[in-house]
Amino acid sequence: MAALGWLTPRRRSATARSVLAGEASAEAARKSSQEHPEPEGAGPEPEFPVLGDDRAAAFFDLDNTVMQGAALFHFGRGLYKRKFFETRDLAKFAWQQAWFRLAGVEDPEHMQDARDSALSIVKGHRVAELETIGEEIYDEYMADRIWPGTRALAQAHLDAGQKVWLVTAAPVEIAQVIARRLGLTGALGTVAESVDGVYTGRLVGEPLHGPAKAEAVRALATAEGLDLSRCAAYSDSHNDIPMLSLVGHPYAINPDAKLRRHARDKDWRLRDYRTGRKAAKVGIPAAAGVGAVAGGTAAAIALSRRRR
What we know:
Helix content: 40-55%
Strand content: 5-15%
Structural class: alpha/beta
Mean pLDDT: 76
């Protein structure tokens, strides 16, 4: 049964398509960050992470790490609202999103269905059109689902002068909108093929998932001159163990059961924002904890004001 697929162990290694997907995503991310340079920070820099280390960066998974739920499903809701597809397709999106929220882990078959649906829906549409719609969908369905604690951790890296990238299986155009709205450097995401600015309905390589994420981070690190042993990565999913294992500072955020076990075995740092409790471990350094509380409070106030 598809709903029980997450109980079955899966072992995947990087393939040629994973490498292609990773390299395509890294190229798209660097191009976007050059077109939309990060704003200059203001105010005093915190003590964590290491200040001024320009060979370090942070990589954040998106779904259930930075944002509650799956970006692709929220995107689907927004496209339905704009008459891109029928009610029966929305029901499938809704079921997959509900399952994801309850299980707290990705089902590869659900993700495959969502990807195929999204590709068929956007085929023939212009890239610029989807980018504009992505901005609207962020405000409608995503802005209020950002985890303040994770956002504060990302801000700590930015304040230290480091670049911060989202790394997600969501379409790169949507990922870049989210990164820009959060003030991050850029995003690595699944690259859909386009010709003359129009989607063909095909992917470049494969979805940026599992090993492909690691390949994207590796490619970006090489292009940016980063030292991965000085970089940090954050994720909720055991599917991202390849990416987390690449860096010197891996963090399990809102981890699923398999990642929690792996993180404890490897002595990785753990943090859980789903219930407001701090997960046990060799904790995130004290300055990061203070920053998360302060940043979370500020983010909560900002969201409250936005709702008024």
